[in-house]
Amino acid sequence: MMTGVVEDHGASGFLAKIPGFKGLIGGKTGTASIAVNGAYGADVIASFVGFLPVDNPQFTAFVIIRKPHENRMPHEGAYLAAPVWKSVAQLAVDTWKIVP
Predict the structure, then answer these.
(1) What CATH number corresponds to the domain at position 71?
(2) Measured between alpha carbons, how far is residue 40 from residues 30, 36, 45, 86 in Å?
């Protein structure tokens, strides 16, 4: 189920894909509005948690971006946290020689 977040057509975690790991990354995006004085304001928490390879996880990370100030894209975990996760995961794959 969690591989679909990264691999399925139109999936929210598409920016977490790593070449060579097709169908082997599991993840979940998250976007939460931050409440201020009992009401939701404009600020959000964007997140992505992922692991690979799914059949024998060797890398797991949770990226949380609180109150992002990027104005060029939606403030969602799919667009902000998933690419950060991908960068860190790619570094782990290369450094630790994790194979699919």
Answers:
(1) 3.30.450.330
(2) 16, 6, 12, 29
